[in-house]
Amino acid sequence: MEWKKWYLDAILVPLALMMMICYHIYLSFMVRTNPFSTLLGINSHGRRIWISAMIKDNQKTNILAVQTLRNIVMGATLMATTCVLLCAGLAAVLSSTYSIKKPLNDAVFGAHGDFAISIKYLTILTIFIFSFFFHSLSIRFLNQVAILVNIPNLDPNPSGCFFLTSEHVSEMFEKGIFLNTVGNRLFYAGFSLMLWIFGPILVFFSVLVMVLVLSHLDFVSRNNNKEKLRIVDIRRSSDCTNGGED
């Protein structure tokens, strides 16, 4: 009887989590091997160019750099605050005897006993705690970048002693954005797992839809990629022509 209550949860929920993990492993592989086929890789390249431009013309762009970083930090702070509120709500539900912990048996597929409900809430709570953790780390790195990006003359000296460089600032910026992205993806996963309260079938289909949507957003279509390459070739040829005329 116990297996009959748990088999949907034991099959569909791990399958949904593995689907999400495998997708992000594939996405990470594509970002490393073929970055310009993904929006993450293209945006990462653009951010490095942006950091270099902000540092080179620091006197004119320092306010723009700080305001842009402030907007990113505010977004990460909002997500971290939301995670804390959700964690507080879930903790309150776990420590209470409200009837919300015991959904109607006829309305829920899968296990819905006291132990099963506790496992569901604890899993969701853990996901949101980790999301808050990654957003907090992201805010830390981004705040450091907001300070370092306004330091003039970020270059190593001729003797070879290391000072702060624009490459170091770019690396810190990329770490902050990466941690923010991980926190956001965990937040999305947490919302899908919240449907586990009403049964594992909803979790599976929610994750399936989310993976399809993310795959559409994370990857650049072949037509768009070809168009971008064509524009780059046209610009290069025009630059060569202008250089020859000069």
Automatic annotation (TrEMBL):
Spell out the InterPro entries in the cross-references: DUF599
Question: Which residue windows are transmembrane per the record?
Answer: 7-26, 72-94, 115-134, 193-220
Q: Which domain of life is it from?
A: Eukaryota
UniProt keyword list: Membrane, Transmembrane, Transmembrane helix
Determine if Transmembrane is one of this entry's keywords: yes
Cite the Pfam families for this sequence.
DUF599 (PF04654)
The name of this protein is DUF599 domain-containing protein
Q: Which organism is it from?
A: Arabidopsis thaliana x Arabidopsis arenosa
